[in-house]
């Protein structure tokens, strides 16, 4: 074959070879990520969601918007009547010392209860995650703190640490630097049981083959916990952290039973201060809205910051 014949056949060969001729490539069309739903499917979805949406609108959205509206009314003469002041009351209350003091006490309460309950619950769950005879008894004991209500737990610790009749004769509830910690003990005790139950369920989902492979690689108990176990149950830990932080900001019964906000307001959390404003609905509404947005922002940053360290099984 001459050179001219080869050159004349070259375009045909390229046309028959898509890899060599980009113009001849028969590339599949990129599918759109969004699926086009039929009107019937959309209507059926809204039909199934309608009961939940109705409950949310009735018991959350409408009361919340009503609460926002109440924040624009100021109590006059001890609640005899209210006058509309617009957003001035929001600026006054949210920038006031009372709101800041209550928020700071709430933050301290969260820092006392969440890490302690979470760490103790994880350690107990790891210790009780064994195939041993009678281990179910210990698992039931460790999770028993969930069986009592917040009020019962608070009364229990009130008597345990009572100066006159308690097993531990201390006067923490009357000391400004210890009152908040005394009120936090029931929450730590209950958080321990909640963390234990949820983390134990997460540990039971960890494949045994993974832990056995880690043992064969020479990983000791502590290294297996830090390098294998905790990363695998990180979604559980993220959920627990968010839930416990929200519970901490909403704490009320512990404060009322043990310290009643004393001494000199040293243990008054934001929720307790809202409760004390029972005759001033306007200021109470503003503080409630402020607490809602503080909790919302804290939860958002928890998801943003902590989710980066979360390991999901499908990744």
In short:
This protein has 315 residues and is mostly helical. The protein contains 13 helices and two strands; from the N terminus they run ααββααααααααααα. It has a domain at 99-309: MetI-like (MetI-like fold).
Tag the structure with descriptive keywords:
single chain; 315 residues; mainly alpha; MetI-like fold; two-stranded antiparallel sheet; 2 strands; 65% helix
Structural features, described:
- The protein has 315 residues and is mainly α.
- It has a domain of 211 residues: MetI-like fold (Orthogonal Bundle).
- The chain contains 13 helices and two strands.
- Strands 1-2 form a two-stranded antiparallel ribbon.
- Helix 4 packs across helix 12 and helix 7 packs antiparallel against helix 10.
- The N terminus is likely disordered.
**Termini gap:** 56 Å
Mean model confidence by pLDDT: 84
State the CATH superfamily name of the domain at 99-309: MetI-like
Instruction: Count every helix, treating DSSP H or I runs of 4 or more residues as helices.
Output: 13
What is the number of E strands?
2
What would CATH call the architecture of the domain at 99-309?
Orthogonal Bundle
Query: And the CATH topology of the domain at 99-309?
Result: MetI-like fold
Low-confidence stretches: 1-27
CATH class of the domain at 99-309, anyone? Mainly Alpha
Strand order of the largest sheet: 1-2
Which series of helices and strands comes N to C? HHEEHHHHHHHHHHH
What integer value in Å does the Rg equal? 30 Å
Shape: globular
Beta-strand percent range? under 5%
């Amino acid at each position: 074959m001459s050179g001219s014949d080869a050159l004349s056949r070259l375009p045909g060969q390229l046309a028959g070879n898509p890899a060599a001729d980009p113009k001849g490539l028969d590339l599949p069309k990129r599918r759109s990520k969004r699926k086009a739903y039929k009107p019937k499917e959309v209507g059926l979805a809204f039909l199934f969601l309608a009961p939940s949406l109705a409950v949310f609108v009735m018991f959350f959205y409408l009361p919340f918007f009503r609460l926002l509206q109440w924040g624009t009314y100021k109590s006059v003469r001890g609640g005899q009547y209210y006058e509309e002041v617009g957003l001035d009351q929001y600026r006054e209350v949210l920038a006031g010392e009372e709101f800041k003091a209550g928020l700071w006490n709430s933050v301290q309460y969260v820092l006392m209860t969440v890490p302690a309950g979470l760490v103790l619950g994880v350690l107990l769950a790891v210790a009780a995650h064994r195939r041993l005879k009678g281990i179910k008894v210990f698992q039931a004991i460790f999770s028993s703190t969930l069986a009592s209500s917040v009020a019962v737990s608070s009364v229990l610790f009130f008597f345990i640490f009572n100066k006159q009749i308690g097993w531990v004769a201390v006067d923490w509830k009357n000391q400004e630097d210890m009152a908040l910690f005394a009120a936090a003990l029931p929450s730590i005790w209950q958080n321990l049981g909640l963390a234990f139950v949820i983390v134990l369920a997460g540990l039971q989902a960890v494949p045994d083959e993974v832990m056995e492979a880690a043992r064969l690689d020479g990983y000791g108990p502590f290294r297996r916990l830090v390098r294998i176990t905790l990363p695998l149950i990180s979604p559980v830990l993220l959920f627990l952290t968010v839930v416990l932080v929200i519970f901490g900001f909403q704490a009320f019964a512990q404060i009322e039973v043990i310290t009643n906000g004393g001494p000199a307001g040293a243990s008054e959390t934001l929720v307790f201060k809202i409760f004390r404003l029972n005759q001033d609905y306007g200021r109470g509404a503003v503080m409630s809205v402020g607490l809602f947005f503080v909790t919302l922002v804290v939860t958002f940053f928890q998801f943003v910051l902590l989710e980066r360290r979360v390991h999901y099984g499908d990744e």
